[in-house]
Amino acid sequence: MDKFQNLQDKSIIYRGQIITHCITLEKAIEEYICNSITKDEVSKYKIYVYLLDRMHFDGKISVFQTILQQSVSKDEFKKRYEKLMGKIRMVKDERNKFAHYLTYVTDESLERADKELSLVSFRDKVVSDKDVYNDHIINEKIEAIVKCTGMVYDLIKEPPPVPPSE
């Protein structure tokens, strides 16, 4: 197989793995949002169709965070949810790199295509951000996404949040 094809294949595999796992996290967040707003299945369907299907991932994360913030005191939010929210935002940032950054193709990257992949962003025709990934890094990122998804599903199992009384 030629080196360019090898690099392209690695790019497709890594992007597919990260984005697939992020979709699962996004769907868990959607489920949490719906369950927090209503128990009625018709209303949940309307929330999905009218709102969530038209929102980007960052918007869903903001709604998720707002629901959590409204359900507990500021101190309790920091204690229980701030770390999770930070991890979810990091996952979202990584997901955006895999969705929007270009595969960095140079003589060096072609030589290293069997070991790693570089993704790059350009700003004003200059490289503004470059990240290098290998199997180990990808597996760590997938583990982090899966952990965040599990934490959201654990929250889904809890009773819907009720804002604290003043």
Major beta-sheet overview: 3 strands, antiparallel
* Distance N to C terminus: 66 Å
| Overall 3D form | elongated
How much helix is in the residues? 55-70%
Q: Supply the number of helical segments.
A: 7
Number of structurally distinct domains? 1
| Whole-angstrom Rg | 19 Å
Task: Provide a compact summary of the structure.
This protein is mostly helical and 166 residues long. 69% of the residues lie in helices and 11% in strands. The chain has one domain.
Describe the structure.
The structure is a single chain. By secondary structure, the chain is mainly alpha-helical. It is built from seven helices and three strands. A three-stranded antiparallel sheet has the order 1-2-3. A hairpin with a 2-residue loop joins strand 2 and strand 3. The termini are far apart. The mean pLDDT is 92.
How are the secondary structure elements laid out?
Elements: H1 3-37, H2 41-51, H3 57-71, H4 74-80, H5 82-100, E1 102-103, H6 107-111, E2 116-123, E3 126-134, H7 135-157
Antiparallel strand pairs: 1-2, 2-3
